[in-house]
């Protein structure tokens, strides 16, 4: 069996070189947070799709892949993560893969002031569910206006 595992958004001051070596030893392709700047979102999507091919896909999103300024409600906050928009663009670029499931982990409501992390996590779950039901990427809304102003 070909290893199709990909580890995205890697960054950490506390991760030892041993952790990276274990990922490499077990065959994970590593895409770091800095790769978003060096490669861009389209190339990251291309690399993921090329690696995975037609294999079944289970996605686990650790919310701390998003920068702690945008998703502070996690047990392991760390600066330098992706923006919510970058994460969503990558996720939407994976529409049409052979999805078998997904989860969002590490959301810690006790640290989530103003519920911004919960909102980001719920939005990512919505995108995952939309992808499971569609072969074309969900489109981001460009404008929205209520049919009636309640205020």
TrEMBL record:
GO terms for molecular function: agmatinase activity; metal ion binding. InterPro entries: Ureohydrolase, Ureohydrolase_dom_sf. The keyword Metal-binding applies. Gene3D superfamilies: Ureohydrolase domain. Pfam families: Arginase. This is Agmatinase. One of its GO terms (biological process) is putrescine biosynthetic process from arginine, via agmatine. Belongs to the arginase family. PANTHER family: ARGINASE/AGMATINASE, GUANIDINO ACID HYDROLASE, MITOCHONDRIAL. Keywords: Hydrolase, Metal-binding.
